[in-house]
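Consortium newsletter contribution from the modelling node. Members have asked for a concrete example of what our holo predictions look like. Here is one, prepared for the erythose-4-phosphate complex that several groups have been discussing at recent meetings.
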Amino acid sequence: MKFFLDTANLSELKQGAAWGVVDGVTTNPTLIAREGVPMEQQIRDICNIVDGPVSAEVVSTDVEGIVREGTALAAIHPNIVVKAPMTRNGIAAASIMSRKGIRVNVTLCFTVGQALLAAKAGAWCVSPFVGRLDDLGDSGMDLIRDICLVYKNYGFPTQVLAASLRSPLHVVEAAKAGAHIATMPFKVLDALFNHPLTDKGLDQFLKDYAKAFPGESSARQSGSQ
Ligand code: E4P
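And here is the predicted structure:
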């Protein structure tokens, strides 16, 4: 499973990249607006930090505008994936851009039927929003499972990018469901590291070693040996 960070914040991206576990990035107009830097500049900076697919979303809603904007975004960097909304115009534009060799992420997907349309349009990936469905009392993870099943049935190459993930459990459930990619906020990636038994175990190992070899342990930790 690939891990993408769902953020436009450069500090978060630098930390994720330093851990060596981030395969790509997703942004949306809300996340870009939060950083206060115009889309093109922010996307360029992101591409300089993470070496992998970076989703940049159009804000046009008509076919011509989506294609024009998407083509311009794709020209910023070879790693750009153009995000187009799951609308009639978005799907028409996705078909056009896919035929031109531009990778498209069809976003705001909430049903299997919509995911089928994205695959038919040749999208590089589709983004089903797990958390937003859960918020309505629906099951976001059932949607991931069903899309993975129907894509597999027909051998669609479109990847399932589980989006709107809100917790480490969401990430694990999306992996079990077979999603190709999980995109998550930085705090979810950070939370994946945590377990109290890891902290407790490490603490005990270090204490035991230090007790047996007092001088050696502190010298090793300070890097003097
Ligand atoms: C990613 O592509 C989506 O824009 C994002 O995951 C949405 O997450 P949210 O529902 O937490 O805003």
